[in-house]
Design a protein that fits this description.
alpha/beta; Rossmann fold
Length: about 200
């Protein structure tokens, strides 16, 4: 079930991931956290994808996840941080109040070191993140604008992208200068996790 990441996940964390997936399924029936057709494939499409984001992240005091919605990758990476007994604080930014209620429920039930900011990304005060993540939120050009606001100067952004990531990268370079390590996704060989640093406006 866990594939390549099985050896990294403890039994206790696996149980919490299962509890989280049950929460997502329950709430999705009411507020569409993830697409209903993807619910049976939640492990492959959402949880494994989130686990691999964590595997490429540096140690962080403050991890910010933008547009947290259904909790991917935010809740999954916070669970892994909890497993490794890291002191990382997580801030989940989400503008939809109902999704915020879900995220707060998950954080409480899983006893995570995380808070939810019910706010628009472009309006909240700069968050000075050491690690910034966003999954299925916007195109890379827009994400870099958010990162420019919320990522610390020495921080790292982790943006999973689909098959069009090269085109998004080329378009973003018309507006932004940055270093980018494109890591092939283990859940989709055509996709990539973009590990980005040193963002500057052109």
């Amino acid at each position: 079930m866990m594939g390549a990441f099985e050896e990294d996940v403890s039994r206790e964390t696996l149980e919490k991931l299962q509890r989280f997936s049950q929460l997502v399924e329950k709430w999705t029936a009411k507020i569409n956290l993830i697409s209903k057709p993807s619910v049976p494939e939640m492990w492959e499409r959402h949880i494994l994808d989130s686990l691999q984001i964590y595997s490429h992240a540096p140690n962080a005091d403050h991890w910010v996840d933008l547009g947290s919605g259904g909790g991917f990758p935010a809740i999954v990476v916070a669970l892994m941080s909890q497993q490794e007994k890291r002191a990382t604080k997580f801030t989940l930014v989400e503008s939809d109040q109902r999704k915020c209620a879900f995220l707060r429920t998950a954080i409480r039930e899983l006893e995570l070191n995380a808070t939810v900011a019910n706010a628009r990304i472009e309006e909240i005060e700069p968050l000075e993140a050491d690690v910034l993540s966003a999954r299925a939120l916007s195109d890379l050009t827009a994400l870099l604008g958010f990162a420019d606001r919320h990522l610390s100067p020495s921080g790292t952004a982790l943006f999973p992208k689909g098959e069009n990531w090269r085109a998004e990268d080329a378009a973003a370079k018309e507006t932004w200068a940055y270093t980018c390590d494109a890591i092939q996704s283990q859940t989709n060989p055509s996709a990539a996790i973009l590990k980005i640093k040193e963002i500057k406006h052109v």
